[in-house]
Write a structure and sequence with these properties.
Length: 83
């Protein structure tokens, strides 16, 4: 009897992970994928304007591979500008 609700929950979770518009917690960010990340500064939450990647050494600029001193709060798949 509980199979249908469980299946719907699983489909919903998979859809969340594959949707490029969905913001997800940084704790489940993939490694080595171009991501749009949000950070909190003293005044607000804002998205960085360049793609980042989660790497073994922390967060890096996707284009330059330089390490970034950031602590993102959430992420979504990077899409080219004009999105």
């Amino acid at each position: 009897m509980a199979v249908r609700p469980l299946r719907a929950l699983i489909y919903s979770m998979v859809e969340d992970l594959t949707s490029p518009d969905k913001w997800l917690p940084v704790s489940i960010a993939p490694v080595d994928a171009d991501l749009e990340v949000c950070v909190i500064d003293k005044r607000s939450v804002h998205a960085l304007v360049f793609p980042c990647r989660r790497a073994s050494e922390g967060w890096v600029d996707a284009a330059t591979r330089r390490r970034l001193d950031i602590a993102p709060t959430h992420w979504r798949r990077w899409r080219e500008q004009g999105r």
